[in-house]
Amino acid sequence: TSINSMLSVYSETGDYGNVKVSGEILLNINYSYKTGALNILVKSCRNLAVADEKKQRTDPYVKAYLLPDTSRQSKRKTKIKTNSTNPEFNETLKYVISHTQLETRTLQLSVWHYDRFGHNSFLGEVEIPFDSWNFENQSDEWFVLQPKMEVATDVGLQYKGELTVVLRYIPPDRNLMLPLGQFQGKKSFKKGKKGDSHMPSGGILEVLIKEAKNLTAVKSGGTSDTFVKGYLLPDDSKATKHKTPIIKKSVNPQWNHTFAFSGLNSRDIRNVCLELTVWDKESLSSNIFLGGVRLSTGNGVSNGKEVDWMDSQGEEQHLWQKMIDSPGVPVEGILMLRSSMGKRKL
């Protein structure tokens, strides 16, 4: 079902290949670092193809997605212009997104002919990756419209959704200053002996698993029964494993569940890696992996040894560093889920 729903985004009751693509689109793209707003000013198109041969007319509009997210939340559209192959839109399509997230996205703009009684016709598209985009350049720019790219569906299928987490590292000296009540009744710490309820020693890493969005649906009816599992590598023993409760029948689950790892000094926090994986719970067979993230310094080294699980990149690395730089302060991030975690050498 997930593959079909992903493909339907690209067809969306539209026809491809009926019209020979021609023309260009004029855009002005700017980003505000202050507000996190990406503004795409769609100014105009020129020399569009004639979509309706019989009536010799084209009623164009422009549609946008921030790939790889092809969900409804990512879709933006302009108004329809009637009977013009050189339409003037002058409409701003807006997204609010952090700059680190934006660097992982590609803007897909497609032009369509609106057909009131049949299928809309595809008139061309342009894809603009933001990993190397120069946001200092404020000038208008013409882009040549391209025919439908087959690979776009593959790109979309790699998108596994996103996970929102809040991290807080409390160093040993600050830990002693916190009121005892703050830690009572939490099962999340490294388990001591029975009846051992003293204050956790050393520094503490708190991980609030808030929510996930656009997870893969693996059950009939387009849902999944999801939970998150966490380890602090290199320790992957059962004693340190953490799990959230299972949220049933949701591909946009909200857990708001905290994991806590104790006994971590400032040197440890640079040598460990927080691995979070999202799973679908199956009652009669193995659970199904839905995606994961790793948070660490990402330098490939732990306690002087080269390891392949210290491989955080982009926002994973950025969020971990932000946490280290702000002891005692919660830092929040939205992380793109990896489609595979690779082999860990422990």
TrEMBL record:
Keywords: Membrane, Metal-binding, Repeat, Zinc, Zinc-finger
Main location: membrane
Gene Ontology BP term (one): exocytosis
InterPro entries with a match to the protein in the record: C2_dom, C2_domain_sf, SLP-4/5_C2A, Synaptotagmin, SYTL1-5_C2B
UniProt-recorded Gene Ontology molecular function terms: neurexin family protein binding; phospholipid binding; zinc ion binding
Cross-referenced CDD domains: C2A_SLP-4_5 (cd04029), C2B_SLP_1-2-3-4 (cd04020)
Gene Ontology CC terms, in alphabetical order: exocytic vesicle; plasma membrane
Cell location: Membrane
Domain of life where this protein originates: Eukaryota
Domain C2: 21-143, 179-310
A Pfam family reported for this protein in Swiss-Prot or TrEMBL: C2
UniProt name for this protein: SYTL5 protein
